[in-house]
Amino acid sequence: xxxxxxxxxxxxxxxxxxxxxxxxxxxxxxxxxxxxxxxxxxxxxxxxxxxxxxxxxxxxxxxxxxxxxxxxxxxxxxxxxxxxxxxxxxxxxxxxxxxxxxxxxxxxxxxxxxxxxxxxxxxxxxxxxxxxxxxxxxxxxxxxxxxxxxxxxxxxxxxxxxxxxxxxxxxxxxxxxxxxxxxxxxxxxxxxxxxxxxxxxxxxxxxxxxxxxxxxxxxxxxxxxxxxxxxxxxxxxxxxxxxxxxxxxxxxxxxxxxxxxxxxxxxxxxxxxxxxxxxxxxxxxxxxxxxxxxxxxxxxxxxxxxxxxxxxxxxxxxxxxxxxxxxxxxxxxxxxxxxxxxxxxxxxxxxxxxxxxxxxxxxxxxxxxxxxxxxxxxxxxxxxxxxxxxxxxxxxxxxxxxxxxxxxxxxxxxxxxxxxxxxxxxxxxxxxxxxxxxxxxxxxxxxxxxxxxxxxxxxxxxxxxxxxxxxxxxxxxxxxxxxxxxxxxxxxxxxxxxxxxxxxxxxxxxxxxxxxxxxxxxxxxxxxxxxxxxxxxxxxxxxxxxxxxxxxxxxxxxx
Length: 559
Hints:
The chain has helices at about 10-45, 50-120, 145-180, 185-190, 200-215, 220-235, 240-255, 260-280, 295-310, 315-325, 335-345, 355-370, 385, 400-410, 415-420, 435-445, 455-465, 470-490, 505-515, 515-525, 555-559, and strands at about 535-540, 550.
């Protein structure tokens, strides 16, 4: 409960907004007066219908400026109330946190004294948790300490109730503020192109209100994304301060799965090139191992998580465009390798979508087979990210973005199988040729050994990931892949020495082989293949629902 932050928000920034809207209201009022005066002067020197038309036009324009001024005052009033309420909430949250903290200290101390008295009086045991207070003393001598303990726990519970009330109050405050902003008069009669946008960013305020109410449209998501795109560009270009970093971090944090459309639009606008620069730029100054309160590591984690959430809404075309930006020629020898390695390093907590993973895997494959490894040297993101102790932030591990991408690809079994075999193929035939170029390079030629890579952990996760199948056709595809993988691993020189394989690499390869173990024992150990001209052979299996498994023939011979 206490990990929530109902007091979050920059009250000073809200005060700045209030002052800005008040100033804008005054400018609109002055402008309306000037328009009226000019209209009156034109009317005085004109005659007939022309004079009347000039007067009406000036009056309409002045009335519109008055409406804009009134709208600015209403927005300022709403935001001023929001800031005042937030200040009061901050104080109550601080009091509640302090009450819980001090009550916990008293409860822990009382529990220890109670335990001493109870055990000395012959009690067999006492509760271990400070909050697990018994209703009655184990021995009479401990009754006094039990009352102190109970009172402390009750105080802590009261503090937690007050904190929970603050959390509920913040949610109600945000909803009410969004509703009041949505009801501002100038927004009700708003029409694009009337000049009101110069004072009140009506589409943006409406988008913020809709986001709070859970009714955000795709167009409003793009509006919000473009609003923060400039800030993200500023941070990525290193022209930033801690406040910029914190603002962007807070924005990414509050947009969860329910508002993934905002994140999808934000990263689509930002592009792969600037996203790579943003993530890589947060790891600057590796000679400063102390974070000193710097929010940059937290922002890097949130960028990764936000991209993962947003990418699930992308079409393959959108994902390919983003991946193309990651491999922008200006990034290839700077940000690309480190950024890709980090973005795909946490397939459990921040898994990129299948569309984005395939798009990046395509480009990693094309680049390496034409130009060589994307990163032959260098380190992972620097000490400032390493200090966060999150997946992908350990600087001493080798930098190999292909390993991270393939580990993520392995979490999508069917997409991984199609990627390895070169596309969708009809697997109903007993002998089905397919393009083995990718398997040949990544399993047969690529050096995954330590210290050049992760010791077969990433490529092993990809191989293990393709093993699951949902029917005989999937099983034939899996067997064909295994057939080719066994052949290529048998000739990969980087697999010949055990010290080249990491612990995780050993585990992943064992998982892949273990899924085929029944067939390998039956065909490879007991009797040999019955049909040496085929790619697979059916064998009895207890590991499938059908009771039949498929084992690769040539792979068994190679092993």
